[in-house]
Amino acid sequence: MTQAGYLECERRWVYWLLILVAGWYGAYTFSLRGGVFCNAQTANVVLLAMAAGNGKWLNASYLLLPISAYLFGSFLSEWMGKSIKRLNLLRWDTLLVALEVGMVVFLALMPADWPDQICQVTLNFACAMQFNTYRQVEGVPAATTFVTNHIRQIGSNLAKLARHPQSEALRNRVLTHASLLGFFVVGAIVSTVMCRTFSYVSLLGALVPLGVVLAGLLHADLVSERGQLAAVPHGH
């Protein structure tokens, strides 16, 4: 394992790049693919409830599609995580990033006149798997697909730090969540500029951070952590 007993898939640099990609996805789908955010499902559940409350059953039924994709992504990532481990070849964490690379290529090159829902549901599925797989960054519970909890954690831990200014653990938590929030914002900013310049193929830019993560995790699985494939990341 890496320093302090953490695997490479738990390191900050991995989480920074993954959450940057999540910001990229959000700006991409909102700008070019239907004006929605694909990273989480709270808004879709609210819209489903509102549609049901207004008797718009067709709209409510339609919203079950992204919600179901997210649910299935969580299920599949949990199931595959255990199955892949038994093969003793690669970690599920690594294979997931490889699958995400393939999804990004497909969606970026997908004809512009194809339904936006294909992109939305595919990214719903990918974000659910990523959210369920990457759970702790060097011992700090964290998400790589949305930032609501990071904002809450910054405020909560700043209040605690004000009472205990000497606490390195609290300072580390504040810096961890703040850095993840910052990378998410950077990803969304870069994506917005890229969308304006390169339109639908701008999603290919997300391959750069994803490729760096994939290369680092492959090196860990095949070289530096080859004998530790059975080790379980924190939070699982």
Give a short summary of the structure:
This protein is mostly helical.
Model description:
By secondary structure, the chain is an all-alpha fold. The chain has eight helices and two strands. It has one domain: Up-down Bundle (Growth Hormone, Chain: A). The protein has helices at about 10-30, 40-55, 55-85, 90-110, 115-135, 150-165, 170-200, 205-225, and strands at about 135, 140. It has a two-stranded antiparallel ribbon with strand order 1-2. A hairpin with a 2-residue loop joins strand 1 and strand 2 (about 140). Helix 4 runs antiparallel to helix 5 (about 115-135). InterPro entries: DUF1275 (IPR010699). This is DUF1275 domain-containing protein. Keywords: Membrane, Transmembrane, Transmembrane helix. It comes from Olsenella porci.
What layout of secondary structure does this protein have?
Elements: H1 12-32, H2 42-53, H3 57-87, H4 92-109, H5 116-133, E1 136-137, E2 140-141, H6 148-163, H7 168-198, H8 207-224
Antiparallel strand pairs: 1-2
Estimated helix fraction: 55-70%
Total beta-strand segments: 2
Main beta-sheet strand count, sense and barrel state: 2 strands, antiparallel
What is the averaged pLDDT score? 93
Helical run tally? 8
| Cα gyration radius (Å) | 19 Å
CATH class: Mainly Alpha
The dominant shape is globular
How big a fraction of the residues is strand? under 5%
From the 3D structure, determine the CATH topology. Growth Hormone, Chain: A
How many domains make up the 3D coordinates? 1
Unreliable spans: none
Question: Span from first to last CA?
Answer: 16 Å
Oligomer: single chain
Secondary-structure class: mainly alpha
Order of strands across the main sheet? 1-2
Encode the helix/strand succession as letters.
HHHHHEEHHH
Pfam families: DUF1275
Protein name: DUF1275 domain-containing protein
Keywords: Membrane, Transmembrane, Transmembrane helix
